[in-house]
Amino acid sequence: MANRKQSKALVRKHIFPVRLSDIELDLLRIKSIDAGMSASELMRRNTLMRPLPKRLSKISLQTYWELGQIGNNLNQLVKATNTALKIGRTLPADPELLRELLELLHQCRRDIASDDVDDDDSEEDEEDDWEAD
After folding, report:
1. Distance between the two ends of the chain, CA-based, in angstroms?
2. Which long-range contacts link 127-130 to residues 24+ away (Cβ below 8 Å)?
């Protein structure tokens, strides 16, 4: 069977070195064997063919964090309310209202996390704002 000619743009002539630990190298080899392809092909497919995670603005990240803090405080208040209920003391807050508020808070966090970055609050000069967890 004759070799087919590839377009010059498709010929892989560049080498991109990557540092891996012994464990990472072993995992890469195992995964490539399981996938039935070379380690290079596996890495190309995983890095070039997967969509990148959405970027969040500084404001969205800060708001998300603040809502998490408020949620923690609400959880503590709900716990105190439930404990007061069990031992027959005066309730610090209405349990049903707290549950509704907590669910609303979780919904706000989900909405922020799923927002598009293409909104007006993301600009070209804010490209270094993204932080990975």
Report:
1. 50
2. 129/55, 129/57, 129/58, 129/61, 130/55, 130/56
Which among 66, 51, 58, 81 is positioned nearest to 128, based on CA atoms? 58
What average pLDDT score do residues 100-118 get?
74
CA distance 38 to 44: 10
Residue holding tokens 């995983």?
46
Higher pLDDT, 107 or 94: 107
Q: Is 24 a residue whose pLDDT tops 50?
A: yes
Q: Distance (Å, rounded) from C-alpha 133 to C-alpha 118?
A: 21
Give ∠ CA 47-50-55 in degrees, rounded to 5.
100
Q: In the prediction, which pLDDT does 58 show?
A: 79
Quick: pLDDT tens for 117-130. 444 444 444 444 44
